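Section 3.1: Structural characterization of target chains.
Under the original work plan, the team committed to producing a structural model for every single-chain target entering the pipeline before any wet-lab resources were allocated. The record below documents one such target. The sequence was received from the expression subgroup and is listed exactly as submitted; it comprises 219 residues.
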Amino acid sequence: MQISVSYLTSFYSKAKTINLIASTPADYLHVDLMDGLFVPNKNFQINEVVKLLKDYSLPLDIHLMTLDPINYIIPLKELNPEYITFHLEATKDIIKTIEVLKENNLKVGIAIKPETDILELMPYLTFIDLVLIMSVPPGAGGQKFLIETPNRIASLIKYRTENSLKFKIEVDGGINNDTIPLIKNADIAVVGSYICKSKDYNKQILNLKNSINNIDYLL
């Protein structure tokens, strides 16, 4: 399993936090962008995000919690992100958004809220690279992991296998060394507070990996 670290909640400034993450064995930097419309909080100006991250070393995993996500694709392309993920619930023109991302040679992710039926993803899974399962309501860090999440992961894995699809499954929300074994079959775990509200980012990432390895060993 890969680890994508979110800097949404931290003891430090955004700049210091992302520099600390860059010095760890994290696989991605998870960039949560909220517009204050799709979710209550707003945390970015697009020009500030580009300035902050334009020379960043880790692959970027960008999560748009915004209405009209298509409006942000071209500015964010400058960052050469690994993934740009938008919410299924945030646009009526899902196919067009996928098309614009693909036209710009960007990997496409679709995120869904905890209350959104997995079946709503089915028409799009052939065309995308990643599904982001929210294991908490989107819009704030430090929330409690929702226990129904593993069943949602299992349903997606079953569909992916039966249809020979290649999309990755990412999970975001309430993940720590106690909850990460519950999502061990996912491909990517987004972890924020557990790492960034600690004094030792490397130690916390090692704890996460050990939690997964210990489960695998016991099985």
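The radius of gyration is 16 Å.
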